[in-house]
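Contributing new complexes? Match this layout with glycyl-adenosine-5'-phosphate.
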Amino acid sequence: MSSNVKMEKIVSLCKRRGFIFPSSEIYGGLNSCWDYGPMGVELKHNVKNAWWKAIVQERDDVVGIDTSIMMHPSIWKASGHIDSFTDPLVECKSCHLRWRAGEINNERCPQCGGELTEPHMFNLMFKTFMGPIEEETDTIYLRPETAQGMFVDFENVLTTSRKKLPLGIAQIGKSFRNEITPGNFIFRTREFEQMELEYFVKPGTDEHWLDYWVKERFNWYIKLGIREENLRLRQHSKEELAHYAKGCYDIEYLFPMGWSELEGIANRSDYDLTQHAKYSGKDLRYYDGESKERYIPYIIEPSGGVDRSVLALLIDAYREEIVEGETRVVLRLQPSLTPMKAAILPLSKNERLTPLAKKVYAQLCPSFMTCYDDSQSIGRRYRRQDEIGTPFCITIDFESLEDNQVTIRERDSLAQIRVPIEELEKTLAAKLSGEPFEATPLWATRQK
Ligand code: GAP
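Output block (do not edit by hand):
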């Protein structure tokens, strides 16, 4: 089992501190649907921005797009989703709960022990109708992956970007799957967000690029601060490979329920463009100016889940520490990922302190996500900030009125330094980008 953090602790922290709530809660919730609250939305943005920066911004061989969720229904015929995006489903004849056949060990219902029906294939795509008439011919689907948008836009992107192969097209967006057994909080849901890269390469170079992307993506999670011992690579066996894949690796994380997929990196061969060429009637071959050949590119696809990354990051960063005999919960997230970079905490609500504290807050807001908190004791306010992972708390006290200096307290070491207000922004920027925080810890008794 994972770094012995229980999922309930993460769910409870997420609710308590405004990271993630059950969707539609005042109506009793909606199974497997979750809303990101004020802290969660910031964390999620930061994860997506980190991915975009590494995949699009810092590379000249990848461009980004944002395609529509509803697409031409023939796409799902061509991709194989209408025929094969299915799970075998069985239903209990007594309690009517439904299960994925693969989850059942002894042919009886895991809930009540009742007899199960024969399996039948269940398509995981959500259907709806386009236009006012609900007829079979007007059926469309909510996309179950963002990938198809990159395949069908390949030609448009290639011509407008004036790039050559190898060329990557990247997208972040919502996908929908009518999962039979969603669960484990945001790990498996019916509406989720994906971060997908489709990297188009010359046939024959595909093995090299698969290897390259597996390494790149594994290292990305380490760079985000996930502990290496909680990550592993797993190669798919031949039997396990999806119908389009020539090879595939999963990056797995040690979640509380055990090792589970965080991201898949697949060699999709020339399957996708071949299928779309066939169904659309368009020639999707690439003209290679160097070799003077025309060919259908192979595609290497690193495909990760935003929500699963958020969950893994929360679990990995969660700590309970004893400080001066009391337990504090702290999220040791990297500063680039934390919802707030700084919190302004006047020592009290005293009317002499408030104007200066508000001034410091207004000064920092344009540069950093900053929050202001003057309710309850300073100790409690520190705890709240620790729980959301805020790297720096800035205290304004009566001395600040005299010397125009404030105290910065660092989340992990609990060390404190005093800096002039006019230096604050510069100091924070330096500390947020990794400059050491040199000061004597106030609480030397801290234990892990
Ligand atoms: N285009 C390939 C593709 O979609 P996938 O392995 O089915 O591959 C890729 O999905 C990633 O999307 C997974 O590794 C996972 O992170 C995320 N994902 C898939 N289904 C999910 C679900 N029901 N809930 C949350 N995340 C999901």
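Reviewers usually confirm one structural detail per submission. For this one: Residues 169 and 402 are 56 Å apart (CA to CA).
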